[in-house]
Design goal:
The protein is mostly beta strands. The chain has one domain: Metal Binding Protein, Guanine Nucleotide Exchange Factor, Chain A. The chain has one helix and ten strands. It has a seven-stranded mixed β-sheet, covered by helices on one side. A three-stranded antiparallel β-sheet has the order 1-2-5, with no helix packed on it. A hairpin with a 2-residue loop joins strand 6 and strand 7. The protein is globular.
Length: 134
């Protein structure tokens, strides 16, 4: 059985990428870092094997947002597309809404809810973690 290729892009289309799935994990992240990077109260991420991720058009601007963490951004439109953490070598997180089919990854948890905005309510039955899983 062959794994399917998933494509995506930044808001302006300057950066296009492809990754081989399925995702290893998907979640909603409420950490302060993600909130500030995205300008949103949470970010939905899908985790893939890093070696299956390829930029097919354009070039990332890499922002080292905290020790051991880099985020892949579009220099043109500012889209926050990827997240990589040295503590998870061999993995890359892709912002779900940058995928051409953002409905494909199935979120499995809410993480870093200790930073969640108080006016945002979680209304599903997924597991909720104050910090990260594990």
């Amino acid at each position: 059985m062959s794994k399917r290729s998933i494509r995506g892009r930044c808001f302006c289309g300057n950066i296009r990428f492809e990754v081989v799935g399925p995702e290893k994990f998907a979640c909603f992240c409420y950490c302060e870092s993600c909130q500030r990077a995205a300008g949103a109260p949470l970010v939905a991420w899908a985790t893939y094997v890093r070696d299956t991720f390829v930029v097919t058009e354009g070039e990332f601007h890499w922002h080292h947002s905290s020790p051991g963490v880099k985020r892949g951004l579009c220099r043109n439109c500012g889209s926050s597309i990827t997240y990589e953490n040295d503590k998870r070598p061999g993995e890359i997180d892709i912002a779900v809404n940058c995928l051409d089919d953002p409905g494909a990854p199935i979120p499995r948890a809410h993480i870093w809810t200790e930073d969640k905005q108080p006016w945002l309510q979680i209304g599903d039955d997924l597991p909720v973690y104050e910090k990260n899983i594990g």
